[in-house]
Amino acid sequence: MKRGCDSDTGASTGRAEPWHRYRWSLAALAAILLAAATIAAPPRPLLVWNVSDSAPRGLYFVAGRAAYDRGDMVVARLPAGLRLFAARRRYLPLNVPLVKRIAALGGDEVCARGDRIMVNDRLVARRVAADARARELPWWSGCAELREGEYLLLMGERADSFDGRYFGPSKEADLLGGARLIWRR
After folding, report:
1. What pLDDT is recorded for position 169?
2. 172, 149 in Cβ contact below 8 A?
3. Dihedral angle computed from the Cα positions of residues 105, 111, 114 and 117, in that order, rounded to the nearest 10 degrees
C-alpha cells in the first residue's frame, strides 16, 4: 500500500509524504543561500579571456591561490575604487579581472617619483601623464615598503599598461590566482 494514496483506487488522499510537503520550500531556500553566498564571496573564475595588449592575448587558466613570487603572472581585480574609472574609460570592462605580472611583494620598497617606478632602488617602469586620448591618468607618489600580502602588479615593458604604476600596490584579496596561458590568440 502506498502512503498518501487510497488503497482501493490508488488516488491521492491529499496527504503528502512529509518530504514532499517541504521540497519546494527547501529547494527555494537552497537557491537563496547559494545566491547570497555568491554575492558575499563572488566565485573565483577558472578561465579568463584577456583582450588587453599589456599581456599576451588569449585564454588563461586561473590557478588556485598560492604563494606568489616576483615575476609570477596573476589574474587580479582592480582595486575597488578604480573599477568604475577603468570601465568608464574603456580600459577594462567593469568586474573583468586583469592579467599582470608581480613586480614587487611584501618586504620590497616601491617608489613612484615623477614618471619613474622603482623597486628596491631599481627602475622597473616608466609612466605617462595621459592616456592615448589625452585624458589624465591617476598617479601615486612616494615610497613605501610593501607589507606581507601587498603586491605591485605591472607589465614593465608596456608603457601603456594600466597597472600598478598608476594605481599603486594591490592587496592579496584582489589576486584571484596564478595566470597560465592555455590558448594564445
Report:
1. 96
2. yes
3. -30
Residue-level pLDDT at 156: 81
- Number of domains the chain contains: 2
Q: How far is CA 112 from CA 120, 175, 182, in A?
A: 11, 22, 34
Are 15 and 51 contained in the same domain? no
For 58-101, how does the pLDDT look when each residue is reduced to its tens digit (9 = 90+)? 999 999 877 899 999 999 999 888 999 999 999 988 888 999 99
For residues 111, 109, 168, 105, the Cα torsion angle rounded to the nearest 10 degrees is: 150
Question: What is the rounded CA–CA span in Å between residue 37 and residue 97?
Answer: 20
- In 3-state terms, what secondary structure has residue 179? strand
Supply the DSSP symbol for 15: -
Amino acid of residue 19? W
Same domain, 115 and 173: yes
Cα distance between residue 147 and residue 144, in whole Å: 9
Amino acid code (one letter) for 89: R
169 and 153, same domain (yes or no) = yes
Residue 67: which domain range? 47-184
CB 119 within 8 A of CB 134: no
Conformational region of residue 157, where left means phi above 0, alpha means psi within -120 to 50, and beta covers everything else: alpha
pLDDT of residue 99: 96
124 shares a domain with 69: yes
